[in-house]
Amino acid sequence: MAKFLEYQGKEWLAKGGMPVPKGRVASSPEEAEEAARWIGGPVAVKGQVQAGGRGKAGIVKLADTPEEARALAEEILAKTVKGLPVEKVLIEEKLDIKKEYYCSFVINNAREARCPMLMFSTEGGMDIESVDESLLFRLNIDPQYGLQSYDAIDVCTQAGIAPADLSKFASFLTKLSKLYKKYDCQTLEINPFVMTGDGSLYCADCKMEIDNSAVFRHPDFGIKIARDLPGQPTDLDVIGWGIEETDARGTGFLMNMGYDEVSPGYVGYHPIGGGSAMMGLDALNAVGLKAANYADTSGNPVAAKIYRVAKATLSQPNIEGYLLGGFMMANQEQWHHAHALVKVLREMLPKKPGFPCVLLLCGNREDESLEILRTGLADMMTPDGIGRRIEIYGREHVTDTKFIGERLLALCKEYSAEKTSQKAG
Ligand code: GDP
Ligand code: MN
């Protein structure tokens, strides 16, 4: 799912007419101080990462002065939460919170429902899984007509909202429900939304996730990749998404794995299918090699798609080898992989003579596939040919992660020694 950070979600909520605290995002302590000055008065400083439980993680804090906001921003921007660096903080007017509530709109996938569903609770602010079931109220929403005021009032009444506040809550929830639909959300969770001292309701937090299949309808969102990503998309992520987005024939997944181009030991990683990918990582981990990227060409993709994934994988700068990890007896016809790899390696290896490539391909049409690889690459695989470090394996090594890892490592060592001696000579 394409997820928004809190500040982005709140921007869209505000544009849709929802009450959101006055705020501004900042990327540095200086910007944070400036934002706090612009707001005037006490502020909340909130680290922006794609993770819940930020309060507990110590990246939601309150400041009385702009100077204090600056210091807190500095502290929060230096943190990493659940592996994600905090790159931005949201500076918001501090709310005078009287009570915190929970609401979310999600898709109810139950067979008899298959519709959006509202969840509402008066126990806001905490992890919703820890709220007692009896205090969480659910309502399926007719996708045709949307959330009706009388239904919202009904839910709020059950939850114990005071009669005088019912129309205020119903109006808040129905407005939110319209935005849920308008923005094609998969999830829209406001935890907490709060009532302030003067009785107003505000969205104090926002988790907005857009349905991947609908991202194209919202160019304004500026979502480059309609897929769940841990952080900002890298160039490889964008290339990978371009392959997937334009060709629906099988999977051609490709994404960055936190590849750091300067440190040694990274290889281009091209597993076939999820199970295979795990075994391939075992193979690499066992010998101390690292995957620069994650890929997956399964679901019987055509050779053209596999070719694009393999080419992008092999084009990563400074990788030391390439692993085609078909550690499973695939049901797809593997000769598409064989054709794709012959074309890619014939194009790429003249630029990287002697580059290590271990190709493991098993499963349907295996014999034909290995034959395509061997004959297609034969002239390059001579002892001093540009493909001299290509090794091709089939079913006899289908689960042999240790062997495959060791072969790749041995080739990588040879290659790096060769490069060093070339430089010296
Ligand atoms: P989460 O922990 O990642 O869900 O982050 P939230 O945005 O939900 O913030 C956690 C808690 O911080 C909320 O439940 C509030 O109690 C508190 N909080 C967040 N924003 C404000 C604010 O503007 N004013 C006050 N007083 N408390 C806030
Ligand atoms: Mn929250």
Automatic annotation (TrEMBL):
GO CC annotation: succinate-CoA ligase complex
Residue ranges annotated for the ATP-grasp domain, each copy included: 10-234
Signal peptide segment: none
Pfam families found in the cross-reference section: ATP-grasp_2 (PF08442)
Keywords noted in UniProt: ATP-binding, Ligase, Nucleotide-binding
GO molecular function, one term: succinate-CoA ligase (ADP-forming) activity
UniProt keyword Ligase, yes or no: yes
GO biological process: succinyl-CoA metabolic process; tricarboxylic acid cycle
Name of the molecule in the record: Succinate-CoA ligase, beta subunit
Organism in which the protein naturally occurs: Bilophila wadsworthia (strain 3_1_6)
